[in-house]
């Protein structure tokens, strides 16, 4: 007769300990969630696994990956950037203004990235030099940049169309769309920066313990400003992708990407308390949220429920962050 508990003993002790560790589920929530959601939607609708749907899903995810990577830089220093929701349409408006002003695509691209970086510089200076809390500083910039975007555009949207933008939005190298490539390059570059450079080590140390980082000689203020500048540049890049995909820029754009960018970072294994970066996990987190909304659309679930689903994921991500801590 099999002794009691023999069935449980078939699971190796090491694996059983891992499965019982809350940190394991926190670190791998995005990958596990992506697998579960993918299987569920593939069973619920025959359209989910078609190449056309997967391609559209990945294009949407690419923009979120760039924004989530931008958010990663703020969160890793125990900060947060709420101004993304206004910086994104602001940079898009600048792109539209420069392009429709006859300066061409290269100038519009530079202008959009510079516009995003300016917001990042202001955020960084307010936070690092004026010692204003990240949440309050970026919340204030959210309101400021919403107003600035409306003022400079006179509340008008811009139609932006060019062969370059069409090629960017629709072109590919084989089956790999340009949007995917841009998102992959940005994510890998951020991963390399955090794991293989002194700058990344200093940023992580700044987020982990600012006082200890200062005692080690790390220029904490400069690190905090730098991450918000990088954050702003990536938001500017995301704005260019958004203009290429939609064919225009709208200063009153109401985007849900703010919540999604935060949830993607935390679902991916990064900590809201700083000092921990998981860029590749952030990519998986962005895929989870994009897949969730894509599946809802295919199942014709009312759009009213979609923000609620994202909100639930944000709360779940916060709980996972606490488990990781």
UniProtKB/TrEMBL annotation:
Subcellular location: Cell membrane
Keyword Amino-acid biosynthesis (UniProt): no
Transmembrane segments annotated in the record for this chain: 29-51, 57-75, 105-128, 135-158, 178-204, 225-244, 256-273, 278-298, 304-323
UniProt-listed Pfam families: BPD_transp_2
Keyword check for Transmembrane: yes
UniProt keyword annotations, A-Z: Cell inner membrane, Cell membrane, Membrane, Transmembrane, Transmembrane helix, Transport
Coiled coil: none
Its membrane topology: Multi-pass membrane protein
UniProt name for this protein: ABC transporter permease
Originating species: Acidiphilium iwatense
Lineage: Bacteria, Pseudomonadati, Pseudomonadota, Alphaproteobacteria, Acetobacterales
């Amino acid at each position: 007769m099999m002794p009691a508990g023999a069935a449980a003993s078939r699971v190796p002790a090491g694996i059983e300990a891992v499965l019982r560790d809350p940190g394991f589920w926190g670190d791998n929530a995005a990958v596990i969630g992506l697998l579960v959601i993918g299987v569920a939607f593939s069973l619920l609708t025959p359209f989910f696994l078609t190449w056309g749907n997967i391609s559209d899903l990945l294009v949407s995810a690419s923009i979120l990956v760039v924004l989530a990577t931008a958010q990663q830089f703020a969160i890793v220093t125990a900060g947060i950037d709420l101004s993304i929701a206004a910086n994104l349409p602001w940079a898009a408006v600048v792109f539209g203004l420069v392009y429709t002003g006859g300066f061409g695509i290269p100038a519009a691209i530079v202008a959009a990235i510079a516009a995003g970086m300016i917001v990042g510089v202001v955020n960084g200076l307010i936070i690092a030099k004026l010692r204003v809390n990240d949440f309050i500083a970026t919340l204030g910039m959210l309101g400021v940049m919403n107003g600035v975007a409306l003022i400079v555009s006179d509340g008008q949207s811009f139609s932006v169309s060019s062969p370059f933008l069409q090629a960017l939005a629709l072109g590919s190298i084989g089956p790999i769309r340009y949007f995917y490539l841009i998102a992959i390059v940005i994510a890998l570059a951020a991963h390399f920066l955090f794991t293989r450079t002194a700058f990344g080590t200093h940023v992580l140390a700044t987020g982990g313990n600012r006082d200890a980082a200062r005692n080690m000689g790390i220029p904490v203020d400069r690190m905090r400003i730098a991450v918000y500048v990088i954050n702003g540049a990536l938001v500017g890049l995301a704005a260019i992708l958004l203009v290429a995909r939609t064919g225009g820029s709208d200063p009153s754009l109401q985007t849900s990407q703010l919540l999604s960018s935060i949830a993607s970072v935390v679902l991916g294994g990064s900590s809201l308390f700083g000092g921990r970066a998981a860029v590749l996990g952030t990519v998986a987190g962005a895929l989870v949220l994009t897949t969730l909304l894509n599946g809802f659309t295919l199942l014709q679930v009312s759009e009213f429920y979609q923000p609620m689903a994202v909100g639930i994921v944000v709360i779940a991500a916060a709980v996972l962050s606490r488990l990781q801590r």
